[in-house]
């Protein structure tokens, strides 16, 4: 699992239609890639989008970004996930 930081100035002001278009492009690219790849969800902030994807490697993340014309300014592999129940 990876987290991808995408610098997109004004991302927080995108319309629902613009976000829908991005999602459609991402889904299409994933289908065309024809390999194990899954977009789980994304977080939109004022000037960035942080995406959580499942992929075999960073190369596949970069291929998705290139084919979809998405920025991929930083890619980090998620080693583990913790939350409030981790303390129990």
Q: Your description of this structure?
A:
The chain has helices at residues 16-33, 58-68, and strands at residues 2-7, 37-44, 48-55, 74-77. Helix 1 (16-33) packs across helix 2. Helices cover 33% and strands 30% of the residues. The protein contains 2 helices and 4 strands, in the order βαββαβ. A hairpin with a 3-residue loop joins strand 2 (37-44) and strand 3. The model has no long low-confidence stretch (mean pLDDT 97). It has one domain: ORF SCO4226, nickel-binding ferredoxin-like monomer (Alpha-Beta Plaits). The protein starts with a strand and ends in an 11-residue tail after the last strand. It is α+β, with helices and mostly antiparallel strands and 88 residues long.
Task: Give a concise summary.
With 88 residues, this protein is an alpha+beta fold.
Key attributes of the depicted protein:
88 residues, 4 strands
The number of distinct β-strands equals: 4
Query: Which structural class do you get from the secondary structure elements?
Result: alpha+beta
Under the CATH scheme, the architecture is: 2-Layer Sandwich
Which fold name fills CATH's third level, the topology?
Alpha-Beta Plaits
- What share of residues is helical? 25-40%
* Broad shape: globular
Note the beta-strand portion: 25-35%
Low-confidence stretches: none
Distance between the termini: 24 Å
Q: Whole-number average pLDDT?
A: 97
Write down the Rg. Answer: 14 Å
Q: Any idea how many domains? A: 1
| CATH H-tier superfamily | ORF SCO4226, nickel-binding ferredoxin-like monomer
The largest β sheet comes out as: 4 strands, antiparallel
| Main sheet strand line-up | 2-3-1-4
> What is the N-to-C succession of helices and strands?
EHEEHE
What CATH first level would be assigned? Alpha Beta
Total helices: the number is: 2
